[in-house]
């Protein structure tokens, strides 16, 4: 029987994340995680952490982490905000910046959390279709809006916009805030961070979950003009007593400070990505050139569902989206060379018999 309060309950679809397998034999290529561990500096920071310090609440401003991010990019600490994963950072940004009656714009094929926050925060939004090849055209965003959010490179399409195109987008939208979600930018070589000095309506978000191998810890940041950072701080400090925890602040700072290790692992992943893309194309797969740590593929003779199930039975997990426009596609995270060789060899058996 329907109870009276039921009409007041939130209408919500729970997020379904990439499956976390129980067995160690599984090759997990379904959540865009890094196949390599975080920098040894992270292990050291955690080992040296004094548990006695946990007696105190963590510093609200996550100062050592913000400083490490500022140092990495050569920007002032006042331009940096930090939070518990980009989901926390993006949620604060949506609350802080998108209080307009005009719609927030984002691509129709993109990160599935944007509509979730819009619905939770009651932000009006309109999606802007990507073209047949999944490309974003910045001219489509030259129109009235209450804000824009675009991942660059985009997910799950793997396609990145060049710096000129992003600058074009920002300069045509000076009356609203533009968020560029750079979750995968470290794999593309294109970051818009230098543009924050020039455009006071630009907000860059980044996560430590992918290129810095800290998905298990929840560390992310935003970079923008200090005036906007002030709003992010005000929002975060007003509603939550969940500043970043003391261990995450130290571990995140350590990850940021080890530039050499970071550059090495990104380079390795990019090399594996290019090898894997070539191997898949040889087997007849069709895919755009990827600027991220994953590939977005389709095969003319086998359905995405069939390939997904075939690999799953053989202990390789990839991502299938049962959604309009992309239900014939698969998202494959780049693992180690060894893992990708296994993937290619299983696919060869399926395709060539
Ligand atoms: C993975 C991802 C994030 C969020 O990462 P967190 O783990 O919450 O920091 C944000 N945006 C895009 C496009 C992503 O793919």
Condensed summary:
With 353 residues, this protein is of the alpha/beta class. The protein has 2 domains: 128 residues, Aspartate Aminotransferase, domain 1, CATH 3.90.1150.10; 218 residues, 3-Layer(aba) Sandwich (Aspartate Aminotransferase, domain 2), CATH 3.40.640.10. It contains 10 helices and 12 strands.
How would you describe this protein?
It is built from ten helices and twelve strands. The chain is globular. It folds into two domains: 4-38 and 260-352, Aspartate Aminotransferase, domain 1; 40-257, Type I PLP-dependent aspartate aminotransferase-like (Major domain) (Aspartate Aminotransferase, domain 2, 3-Layer(aba) Sandwich). Helix content is 36%, strand content 13%. Helix 2 packs parallel to helix 7 (246-257) and helix 8 (259-282) runs parallel beside helix 10. Helix 5 links the parallel strand 5 (147-151) and strand 6. It has 353 residues and is α/β, with parallel strands linked by helices. The model has no long low-confidence stretch (mean pLDDT 95). It has a seven-stranded mixed β-sheet, with helices on both faces. Strands 9-12-11 form a three-stranded antiparallel β-sheet, covered by helices on one side. A two-stranded parallel sheet has the order 1-10. Residues 32, 85-87, 111, 151, 155, 181, 183, 207, 209, 215, 220 line the site of pyridoxal-5'-phosphate.
């Amino acid at each position: 029987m329907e109870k009276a309060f039921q009409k007041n309950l939130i209408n919500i679809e729970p997020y379904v994340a990439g499956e976390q397998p129980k067995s160690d034999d599984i090759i997990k290529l379904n959540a865009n995680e890094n196949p390599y561990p975080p920098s040894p500096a992270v292990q050291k920071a955690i080992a040296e952490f004094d548990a006695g310090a946990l007696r105190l609440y963590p510093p609200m401003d996550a100062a050592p982490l913000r400083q490490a991010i500022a140092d990495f990019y050569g920007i002032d600490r006042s331009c940096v905000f930090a939070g518990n994963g980009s989901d926390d950072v993006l949620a604060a940004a949506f609350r802080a910046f998108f209080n307009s009656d005009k719609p927030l714009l984002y691509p129709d094929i993109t990160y599935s959390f944007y509509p979730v926050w819009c619905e939770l925060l009651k932000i009006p939004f309109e999606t802007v279709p990507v073209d047949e090849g999944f490309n974003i055209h910045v001219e489509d965003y030259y129109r009235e809006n209450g804000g824009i959010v675009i991942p660059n490179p985009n997910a799950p399409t793997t396609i990145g916009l060049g710096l000129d195109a992003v600058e074009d987008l920002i300069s045509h939208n000076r009356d609203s805030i533009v968020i560029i979600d750079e979750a995968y930018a470290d794999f593309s070589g294109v970051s818009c961070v230098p543009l924050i000095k020039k455009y006071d309506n630009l907000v860059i978000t980044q996560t430590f979950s992918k290129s810095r191998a800290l998905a298990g810890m929840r560390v992310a940041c935003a970079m923008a003009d200090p005036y906007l950072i002030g709003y992010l701080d005000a929002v975060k400090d007003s509603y939550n007593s969940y500043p970043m925890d003391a261990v995450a602040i130290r571990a995140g700072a350590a990850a940021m400070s080890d530039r050499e290790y970071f550059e090495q692992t990104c380079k390795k992943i990019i090399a594996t990505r290019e090898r894997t893309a070539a191997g898949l194309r040889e087997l007849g797969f069709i895919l755009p050139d990827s600027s991220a740590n994953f590939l977005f593929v389709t095969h003319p003779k086998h359905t995405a569902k069939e390939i997904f199930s075939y690999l799953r039975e053989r202990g390789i997990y990839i991502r299938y989206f049962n959604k309009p426009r992309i239900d014939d596609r698969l998202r494959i995270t780049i693992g180690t060379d060894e893992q990708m060789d296994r993937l290619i060899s299983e696919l060869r058996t399926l395709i060539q018999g």
